[in-house]
């Protein structure tokens, strides 16, 4: 998608270096950063220079390529893979991508391993682009249906950033929106600010602006009122891990939006590539919920009048805080899962029907 009218992807490989857009500086500064070692890749995931489930997976895949370039040694590759998986616990794409790479590379000789690793990382990236594009084409049908009935702008609420910046291109939750806009359907997006890191305000609103899609940032607590007022036609969110029973783990606050949508009879969809499905666990209590540094709550970052990014404290120094990064929305609150293969019920039957 575009930034200042130039087409970008969120990650690419050039002259043995992985290039990323540093998302911790957006929307104020657009900085392309080089990752030269596997440690750089791990750091970029930990510090959220790259974030969003599919992009974390792609970064981990390229991280293993960097590990081989650094030291073509099986023990080093294994410890790199473990460190990558541990860098963020909740999004399953990270483990999925690392496992896929390691399976592909097992038993391969030293001479061929780099080429094979690079091919596989590129395959993961291209697959994600295709999956996200197809999620968009499938989700477009829902937006089109609402538009045909309403004959007016479709108002869509989204939470966090499940846009192209969270993937490689298109995004998951935003892909149907981009496709609708390109087809001439009038859409407007309510963007949840998404405290504490403000991925909605900083990233979703930014990328929608760059694509010319009307959007309004709202506080995380405003969605309920807008739904009661009839100003939300549908919700679409992303997911970091979808269980085979249809329960969805996503950015903290998603669950409250789903409850509110249910109470107001508003369709609540989750968009996901199949790489986000965790087929192994059934009970959401088994999902490791990331607990992040409380400084993300106690401090906020912004740009001052001298164009410098500054961080300031907003809580009393003595206050305790708890920074839980994700929650789980039960399948019963979800109208449907929009995947690359089609739309299905949020249930084991629905998912298995699409993914045999
Ligand atoms: O903590 P983040 O910014 O990595 O959280 C991102 C989300 O919660 C997204 O909704 C999710 O990863 C889906 S991205 C297509």
**How does the major sheet shape up?**
7 strands, mixed
Distance N terminus to C terminus? 32 Å
Strand order within the widest beta sheet: 8-7-6-9-12-17-18
Q: What is the percentage of strand-forming residues?
A: 15-25%
Bulk shape: globular
Mean pLDDT over all positions:
98
Q: At the third CATH level, what is the topology name of the largest domain? A: Rossmann fold
Alpha-carbon Rg, integer = 20 Å
Helical proportion, percent range? 25-40%
By CATH reckoning, the class of the largest domain would read Alpha Beta
Stretches where pLDDT falls below 50 for ≥5 residues? Answer: none
The total strand number stands at: 18
What is the CATH homologous superfamily assignment of the largest domain? Translation initiation factor eif-2b, domain 2
């Amino acid at each position: 998608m575009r930034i200042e009218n130039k087409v970008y992807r969120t990650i690419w490989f050039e002259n043995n270096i992985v290039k990323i857009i540093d998302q911790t500086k957006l929307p104020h500064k657009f900085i392309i950063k080089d990752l030269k070692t596997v440690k750089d890749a791990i750091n970029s995931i930990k510090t959220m220079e790259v974030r969003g489930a599919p992009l974390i997976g792609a970064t981990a895949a390229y991280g293993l390529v960097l590990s081989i370039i650094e030291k073509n040694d099986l023990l080093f590759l294994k410890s790199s893979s473990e460190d990558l998986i541990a860098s963020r616990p909740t999004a399953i794409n990270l483990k999925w991508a690392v496992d896929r790479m390691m399976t592909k590379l097992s038993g391969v000789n030293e001479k061929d391993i780099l080429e094979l690793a690079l091919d596989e990382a590129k395959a993961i990236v291209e697959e994600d682009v295709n999956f996200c594009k197809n999620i968009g084409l499938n989700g477009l049908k829902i937006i089109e249906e609402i538009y045909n009935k309403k004959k007016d702008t479709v108002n869509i609420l989204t939470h966090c950033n499940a846009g192209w910046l969270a993937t490689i291109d298109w995004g998951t939750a935003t892909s149907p929106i981009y496709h609708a806009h390109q087809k001439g359907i009038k859409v407007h997006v309510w963007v949840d600010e998404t405290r504490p890191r403000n991925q909605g305000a900083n990233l979703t609103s930014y990328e929608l602006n760059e694509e010319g899609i009307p959007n309004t940032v709202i506080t995380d607590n405003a969605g309920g009122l807008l739904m009661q007022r009839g100003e939300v036609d549908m919700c679409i969110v992303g997911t970091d891990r979808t269980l085979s029973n249809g329960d969805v783990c996503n950015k903290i606050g998603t669950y409250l939006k789903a409850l509110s949508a249910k109470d107001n009879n508003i369709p609540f969809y989750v968009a996901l590539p199949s790489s986000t499905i965790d087929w192994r666990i059934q009970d959401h209590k088994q999902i490791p919920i990331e607990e992040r540094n409380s400084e993300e709550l106690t401090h906020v970052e912004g740009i001052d009048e001298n164009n410098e990014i500054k961080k300031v404290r907003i809580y009393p120094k003595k206050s305790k805080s708890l920074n839980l990064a994700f929650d789980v929305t039960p399948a019963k609150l979800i109208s449907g899962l929009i995947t690359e293969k089609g739309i299905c019920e949020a249930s084991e039957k629905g998912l298995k029907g699409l993914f045999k």
